[in-house]
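We examine the record.
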Amino acid sequence: MAVIQSIERAFTLLEHLGSSDSAGLSLQELSEHSALKPPTCHNILGTLIYLGYVRQDSGSRRYALSDKSFFGGERLWLQQLVERALSPMQALVREFAETFILCVYYRGQRKTLLALEPQQALRVSANEGEDRNFFSTATGRMLFAMLPDLERKLLQRHCGNWVSLWPELAKSEAPAKFLQDMVDSQAYYYDKSPDIEALAVPLFFEPQKVSGAIGVYFPRLRHKSGEYAHIFKRMQEAGAEIRRNET
C-alpha cells in the first residue's frame, strides 16, 4: 500500500509534539526530531494550526498539541464551557436587556456557543453556530487579535476581502501592535452599522485551550457612550466568573 508522504509527515510532527512536555517544541527542535527541513515543518504546522490540532504560543513561538488532538477532548471542554457560562451570561442579559454572545476560535471558525437575547421587541438578534466573520464583527475582531501571527496570516489568506472589511487594520503602520493594544485594553468598540453598535471583551483561559470573547449588540443610541465603561466592566467580570468556574 502506498504511503501518502504529507500525511506521514504531519503525524510524525504530531507524535513528537505528543511526547514533549507542556512547554512544547520550537520549529528547530521539531525539524531536528523529524529530520524534516524547517520550511517543510513550518508549512505542515501552519495547516495543523489552521485545522485546530496544534497551537503556537505567541510569546515563545513554541508549538504544542491542542485539546482537539486528544479526539473528543475539545468538544467535551466546549460543552462544559457553555454550562458554566450560561448563568453569568444570563445575568448580563437581565441587567442590560441586550443581546449577549459567547464566541470562541474553533477550527479556523468563529464559533458562537451562546446567543442570548432579551425579551424586548426592539433588539439585535444573534445566532449560535460557526462562521468566518473575523473582520466584520466585534467578537470576531477580538478573537483575531488574540491569535498567534501565523494563524492570523492563514485567516487573512482565506478571506481575500478582509482589507475592505477592516480598513483600520489594513491601514495600520504597525498591525501587530494595533492588535495587541486591542487585547491589552480588554475592551473593543465596533461601530457596526448605521443602526447597530457592538462591544467585545477577550476571554482568556489558563492553560489557554481556546481563545474566547464575550460580545454585546444593541440598537444605536440606546446606550450613551458614557455607559460603555460600565458595560465593559460587567462583561469582564462575567468572563472572570466563567474562568473561576473552570474545572
Summary: The domain at 73-244 is CATH 3.30.450.40 (Beta-Lactamase). The mean pLDDT is 87.
